[in-house]
Amino acid sequence: MTADQAAPVAAPGGLSRRARRRLSLGGQYGLFIVVVVLIASLANWPQLHTNFANWSVAKTLFPDIITVGLRNTAVYTAVGFGIGLVLGLVIALMRLSPVLPYRWFATGYIEMFRGLPLLLIFIFVGVGVPLAFPGTNIPGGAVGQAGLALGLAAAAYMAETIRAGIEAVPKGQLEAARSLGMSQGRAMRSIILPQAFRIIIPPLTNELVLLCKDSSLVLFLGITLEQRELTKFGRDLAGQQGNTTPIIVAGICYLIITIPLSLLARRLEARQRREQR
């Protein structure tokens, strides 16, 4: 390589491309810092502290926000995830079935429940089911109702995730299992599904994070004080105290659940990418 080839190409203004790129990035960083400092200098910090970070109000929330709000949120999320996973697996297998009515039903279910707002599903479970089937009580009370509503919605998304995982397993795995005398069902249970679930663990973890946040809609089921999740707990206390600090504390409690799950999902995705190389 000659000296002329090794030298950086200078732009018409006298600066090389690398220098201009660094100058542009420095300008963007500088502009960002100026905007942040300007916003911080204009904010009314004493007022924000009084209304959103009032420690005297925040400390009155404990330990109930943990033993009631956080606990119920975790329970609603876990039950909804369990129902959604089982139902989603059934829907995914129906979606892949050679039986045409099964595929029609699975496709209709997925499109309908992915298209409906989750609030309407909660209203349907809390109001529609008792009206449609008088005298019928969903087992588990508020936990059962919340889990069913969350599970019905989650199943539509999980079904597509599970279907994609099954289709990602090489077809030769199923053919090899059948050549060994395994039935279609046994091959699916023993060979295909274990590999598929290993592939889809990261997206399922992300779905768990979404369900945790969606559990805030449980308040539309008419729950009691002991059945309140974090959002309902924070709203009730904010109304009683005349201060929005309880809502901020409830949000922090959501982060206690969602941030570790999000980090876990990213680590699982990174490990999966390394294994595929």
UniProtKB/TrEMBL annotation:
Domain ABC transmembrane type-1: 70-265
SUPFAM superfamilies to which the protein is assigned, alphabetical: MetI-like
Stated name of the protein: ABC transmembrane type-1 domain-containing protein
Major location (coarse): membrane
Similarity comment: Belongs to the binding-protein-dependent transport system permease family.
Topology in membrane: Multi-pass membrane protein
Intracellular or extracellular location(s): Cell membrane
Organism of this sequence: Actinomadura napierensis
Entry-linked Pfam families: BPD_transp_1
InterPro entries the record matches: AA_ABC_transptr_permease_3TM (IPR010065), ArtM/GltK/GlnP/TcyL/YhdX-like (IPR043429), MetI-like (IPR000515), MetI-like_sf (IPR035906)
Keywords annotated in UniProt: Amino-acid transport, Cell membrane, Membrane, Transmembrane, Transmembrane helix, Transport
Stretches that traverse the bilayer: 25-45, 74-94, 115-133, 245-265
CDD domains associated with the record: TM_PBP2 (cd06261)
